[in-house]
Amino acid sequence: MATQQPYDASNRRDEISSAGRGWRVGRVFGIPVFVSPMWFVIAAILVYSYGSWVRYTSPTLNTVQTYLVSFVFVLLLLGSVFLHELGHALASKAYGIRVYAMTLWMLGGLTETDAEDRRPGVDFVIALAGPAVNLVLGVIGGVAAFLISPQLALTQAFILQLAWANLYVGVFNLLPGLPLDGGTMLRAVVWKVTSNRFLSTRVAGWVGRVVAIAVVGVALFGVTNGATAFSFGLLFTLTIAWFLWNGATQAIRAGTLGDRFGLLHAGRMAAPALLVPADLPLAEALRRAAEAGRPGIVVVDSENRPESIVSGEAVAATPEDRRPWMPVSSAARSLAPGLVLPATLAGEDMIRAVQAAPATEYLVVSELSPSGQVAGGQVVGVLAARSIADVLDPHQTVK
To answer: Are residues 357 and 219 both part of a single domain?
Structure first.
């Protein structure tokens, strides 16, 4: 199983950290490659369980040969996942998309790319590239095993493992449901037809749930009918199904959330703001704001230029008996870069902007300078971060 994940643009660095990825094992085409620590645990279990299957299917092999074949199969499975992810990575680079890292697990991998401005056709090709690499290697391995003399049983077994490992990774990832590559391809097709990326994500996510259920059904059917392969691999099959179900569920949630991005618009969501001098008592500023019906309070300088925004959290933390004696500026946050947003900011651009500069309130203005500050434009209002969360909450009804 292989997935592709957009890299968080707000955390870009020249040197990719191993935190959350595992052990770094090197670079390929300039791309850092990591192996998850869980690979070693799962590999040990798989060597033992698959060794039983090898003994069942190849009784002429002794114990050492049996587990040697099983161990080589596990390494080849990791190699198949690596080649699969490399296919995604090189296809991405061919389209000029930056690839940040590849992380390999026993049962799959992850390629982190810059996914901004992607198109359905590009997504389809990049998703197809991974399974295509495995299928080609699987066919080559199968032909090679057929041509090898039967007397070279162990060598033939190794090559067959190479073929089967790649065919398994390739075919399985073509199943049409997220988070598999086939799901990404299905999403690209629906996206192309409907021009709605978020609807296509939900559709591919629901199909992914169907695939997860089907995987469990096939495994249970095999076990109840005495299929040895399924009885040995039932735990891994259920693990795969669990992974698919979780990935599909996340895709459905992402698609549902994405549909609400269109409701985000800084100018429309900003609350009217009251402009006050820095030395005005906090209590008086709050009274004037309530009287004027302007929930936002912006502190301005002597030339009426915005300096800071009154923080709702700071106000709530200030006892009422102190508010008449403290200046409003003491409960305000200065307008650092990123805290001033243009009124035209909307959708995913708005999400990226607030992720880059987390805060409880933002000043919304009609015009920004290239440096991100007010450029002679008018103050439109104050945008509360909570209002963004409310719009994105699928349980909220937004007018």
So the answer is: no
Residue 399 lies in a domain: no
Mean pLDDT by runs of 10 across the 399 residues of the chain is 50 56 88 87 80 76 83 83 92 92 82 80 94 94 83 74 85 93 96 93 96 88 62 69 92 87 91 94 94 93 89 91 93 89 90 90 84 67 91 64
The rounded distance, in Å, linking the Cα atoms of 75 and 350 is: 45
Does residue 118 share a domain with residue 49? yes
Sheet strands side by side (includes 296-300): 273-277, 296-300, 306-310, 332-334
pTM of the model: 0.73
Same structural domain, 154 and 52? yes
* Domain assignment of residue 96, yes or no: yes
The enclosing domain of 375 has a CATH number of 3.10.580.10
Choose the final residue of a domain: 262, 283, 314.
262
The Cβ of residue 377 has, within 10 Å, a number of other Cβ atoms equal to 15
Task: Report which residue type is found at 169.
Answer: V
